[in-house]
Specification:
single chain, mainly beta, 8-stranded antiparallel sheet, about 45% strand, globular
C-alpha cells in the first residue's frame, strides 16, 4: 500500500495545500466507501468540507456518490424504497481505486471500479485539477466518466425516480462545512434554497461566513442536470444525474461486442470556484467564466 493511499494525495495551488484526496479508507460498508477530497480549504486555509458529519455520516467531503446504480446504493446510509420510505438495506457498493494514470501536486487522473460483492458494475476515469484564479480564489476542475462493464442493461436512479419528490440527488456532491448560520444559495437570477434547488443554471453559489463556493457545469450534458441544494438541514450542493427519470448507461452494441468490452459512457464535468470571503453575483460570475475557460 502506497503512502498516497494511506495518507492521501495532497493538492496544491501556487505551493499552498488546498485539499487532500484519500483513496484508501476503513469505513463501514453502509457508508458506501469511496475516494473523496477532504479537507478542502480556501487559499487562506478556511475549511469548506466535512467528513462523516453527525447529521449524515455517509457524506464524505467532495466526490461522486449515487444512491441507485441498478438497485445498489453507492451513496451510503439508508435506501429510499418506493411506498416504504428510507430503509436500512444490505445493498451498498464500493468505489475502489485502481491506479493513478497521472499524479501531480496540482491534479491527477485516476481509474476506479464501482463494485458490489466483487462484481464490477461501472468503470470510472476521474480527472481532477486545481488551478489558481486570483490571490483569494482557486478552482477545482472535476471530471468523471462512467462506463457500463456488466455486458447488460444498467441505469442510474435517485430517491426522486423511486418516488420521493425533491430528492434527485446523485452524481458530483460537495458536503460543505456546517456553521451556526445556514449559508446563502444563489444563481444569476434566483436566491434561496427553495428557488435554486432543482433548477438548471449555468452556475450556483453557496456563501458561508467567510467563504464562497461557486459550482458550474462545464459541458452541455452537465448543464442539463438540475442542481441539488441543501442549506437549512445541512450545507451541500450536487448534481442530479437522475432528476425526472432514470439515466440509462447502455451495454455494448451487438455489432461492437468482441471489439469493445465496455458499454456507453456518461461524462460530467463540474468546475468549483473556492473563494475566501462572501462573493456577490458579479464576482461569482466573473470567477466562473475565468475558471471554465482557462
Amino acid at each position: 500500500m502506497t503512502d498516497s493511499q494511506t495518507n492521501g494525495l495532497l493538492l496544491k495551488v501556487a505551493g499552498r495545500p488546498v485539499g487532500r484526496y484519500v483513496t484508501y479508507h476503513r469505513l463501514p460498508a453502509r457508508l458506501s466507501p469511496r475516494p473523496y477530497l477532504h479537507p478542502v480549504t480556501t487559499l487562506a486555509g478556511t475549511a469548506v468540507t466535512e467528513l462523516t458529519p453527525a447529521d449524515h455520516t455517509h457524506h464524505l467531503g467532495v466526490g461522486v456518490a449515487v444512491p441507485d446504480v441498478e438497485g445498489h446504493n453507492f451513496w451510503g446510509g439508508r435506501t429510499y424504497v418506493r411506498d416504504q420510505g428510507p430503509t436500512e438495506l444490505d445493498d451498498h457498493g464500493t468505489q475502489r481505486h485502481v491506479a493513478f494514470q497521472l499524479s501531480d501536486p496540482d491534479g491527477f487522473v485516476e481509474e476506479l471500479r464501482w463494485a458490489v460483492a466483487g462484481a464490477d458494475l461501472l468503470r470510472e476515469r476521474r480527472t481532477v485539477a486545481a488551478t489558481e484564479l486570483t490571490d483569494t480564489a482557486w478552482a477545482l476542475d472535476f471530471t468523471f466518466s462512467l462506463t457500463n462493464v456488466t455486458g447488460g442493461p444498467l441505469s442510474i436512479g435517485s430517491p426522486a425516480t423511486n418516488g420521493r419528490p425533491g430528492a434527485a440527488y446523485g452524481g458530483y456532491f460537495w458536503r460543505a462545512r456546517k456553521e451556526a448560520a445556514a449559508p446563502d444559495a444563489f444563481t444569476a437570477d434566483r436566491e434561496g434554497e427553495e428557488a435554486v434547488h432543482g433548477s438548471r443554471a449555468d452556475w450556483l453559489a453557496l456563501a458561508g461566513t467567510d467563504w464562497t463556493l461557486v459550482f458550474a457545469g462545464a459541458t452541455e450534458d452537465t448543464r442539463r442536470d438540475p442542481w441539488f441544494v441543501r442549506t437549512a438541514e445541512y450545507p451541500g450542493v450536487g448534481s442530479s444525474l437522475a432528476h425526472d427519470e432514470r439515466l440509462p448507461i447502455p451495454p455494448p452494441q451487438p455489432e461492437r461486442r468482441g471489439r469493445c468490452p465496455h458499454g456507453e459512457t456518461v461524462v460530467r464535468r463540474i468546475v468549483t470556484v473556492v473563494a475566501d470571503g462572501r462573493l456577490g453575483r458579479g464576482e461569482a460570475a466573473a470567477l466562473v467564466r475565468k475558471a471554465v475557460t482557462q
